[in-house]
Amino acid sequence: MTEFGCARCYGKDALTAMAFCTTRLRETHRLVERSHFGVSLRECPECGQAFASIFTEFVDGTGGEDAQYFDIVPLTGTEVTSLAAQGSRVDLVKLGALGSVRRRLSSAWPTGKTKTIAWRRDPLSVREGH
Looking at residue 101, what DSSP letter applies? Predict the structure, then answer.
């Protein structure tokens, strides 16, 4: 295992990791499920690494190509327990802070722009889509 995860879920290549994570991570808890915003806890079937999966969409009502963001943040066991206990009242500021202090997998597709998939280590602001 690396700092977090394994070569499949947390390897060097972001595109390969995203393909694996979006199809193979097993959902363990669904914290928030709304039409433009979702937060779930997931687990790698290969190594057991836990992740928070955050999806946000911002509908602008024009053109049909709404901005979509998807972040996969690795978690410790203690963090999983805390987030699972919060359920739908998950603290979005604290969740964003976790994604800001460690490498996370990120897909960003702003309205009218090209989709990018990359490993990121910059601040993560988690807010509900609309």
Answer: S
CA distance 50 to 26: 9
Q: How many CA atoms lie within 13 A of 68 on its CB side?
A: 13
Output the CA angle 110-114-116, nearest 5 degrees. Answer: 85
Sign of the dihedral through C-alpha 119, 124, 127, 130:
negative
| Full pLDDT tens readout for the chain, 130 residues | 458 999 999 999 999 999 999 999 999 999 999 888 999 999 999 999 999 999 999 887 666 678 899 999 999 999 999 999 999 999 999 999 998 889 999 999 988 889 999 999 988 888 766 5
